[in-house]
Amino acid sequence: MTRWAMVADLRRCVGCQTCTAACKQANATPPGVQWRRVVDLEVGEYPHVKRAFVPVGCMHCEDPPCMHVCPSTATRKRADGIVTVDYDLCIGCAYCAVACPYQARFKVDRQEFAFEAAMPNELRDERRIGVATKCTFCVDRIDAGLAQGLRPGVDPEATPACVNSCIAKALHFGDAQDPQSNISQLLAENQFFRMHEELGTGPGFYYLWDKAP
Amino acid sequence: MNWLQRHWDARAAANFMLGGTGSGLMVSLTLASSDSAFPVLLSSILVAAGLTAVWLEIGRKLRAVHVFFNPFTSWMTRESFAALLLFPLGIGAIFVPSALPFAAAAAAAFLYCQARILRAAKGIPAWRAPQIVPLIVLTGLAEGAGLALVFAADPLLLSFFVLAVAARFVAWLRYRAAVPIPALEPAGKALLWIGTVAAIALVLVPPLAGLAALAAGWWLKLALVTRASFNQGFSLPHLPVRGTR
């Protein structure tokens, strides 16, 4: 069984936000909505302060709290682990947004563009107004790529836009269930953690922080 | 990097305030000897007003019926079903008083669902604490009993009111010990001095005592939904190890 997951190598991320821009371009999200973003964290107290850049977004959890609370069944989890939102079912109650521990959900109530008029890459999609939206792992690219026999995470045409755009090769995508996959190799060779593991959500987003001992 | 959620504002809080009071009132009326129909009607009106307030907040109002689609895991859906039971039973109890216990059971279910709605919101530490469930349920009962005192001051109802107010304060102490959030302190003080001390001290003037308990409960819920609802933010259990070691 496939389990699509993402890996972020915190040692490599430089906080350039190229993934953020690539996501906005690929998914035409409105101003203020960032399905993929990179938070700049400072840890410690002066003079022992360290800084880390942490890519965040929907973690496509194994046990997604957003799905359980959703009253309309708009939020679902596919067999391959990707958590989706059906814009035609969602009522925009935002219960998922308050249930998500990762600040990954957005809701806009009116169409907005970066400038007064929509730029060519900005989508006029009425279906996304007044409903919950979030990172989809570029599910359309994955499905289209698989249909063409491509390998998500290896072939760029079948890989999420943020991963393709990463200038430092900090972001990786692949099948966590396949021991031969790119991300399984990375997880075997490095120490990693998942965000807020104690909540039991089982995030599908792994952070590498050091070599395996 | 804590972040105060803005998705649920005063309209969502109004559902917890009005719905909690309305359902608590319906439960409390089973202890009152008065057979006046107005408090029973008021109970349903309050619950309906709360649901209307939250309906005004959703992004796709014409799809509101979709709220009934997930009774298997969503407490919001279950709350809606409880309301669906509460309204006909509540209206029925106006004409057939012997139906009141059934309406009260639906109201109790509605109140419990409201508490579980907050408990299921894993993103908000102030809501996901298990201690939120008794706090919300007892607050609803104290508010409802307080409002019932405006219409009837039977000894049994008065005893229930005092018990609910005291139990609510104990629930608040347990909650605050588990979730120490400064944003809740003003509402907590109001709960102590207005909602508990004043409410019990004024028990010889039942309507005033009831309204004091009601006001403090509403203040607490408004603060809980709109001021204490911080997402926990991001954290790094390990910092990246860069360079040579």
Observed structural traits:
heterodimer, A: alpha+beta, 4-stranded mixed β-sheet, two-stranded antiparallel sheet, 6 helices, B: 245 residues, mainly alpha, Formate dehydrogenase/DMSO reductase fold, globular
Write up what this structure looks like.
The complex is a heterodimer of chains A (213) and B (245). Chain A is of the alpha+beta class and 213 residues long. Chain A has a single domain (4-211), classed as Alpha-Beta Plaits (2-Layer Sandwich). In chain A, 20% of the residues lie in helices and 24% in strands. In chain A, a hairpin with a 5-residue loop joins strand 4 and strand 5 (83-85). Chain A is globular and about 50 Å long. Chain B has nine helices and two strands. Chain B has helices at residues 10-29, 38-55, 75-95, 100-119, 125-128, 132-151, 155-178, 185-201, 206-226; strands at 3-4, 230-231. The longest helix of chain B has 24 residues, at 155-178.
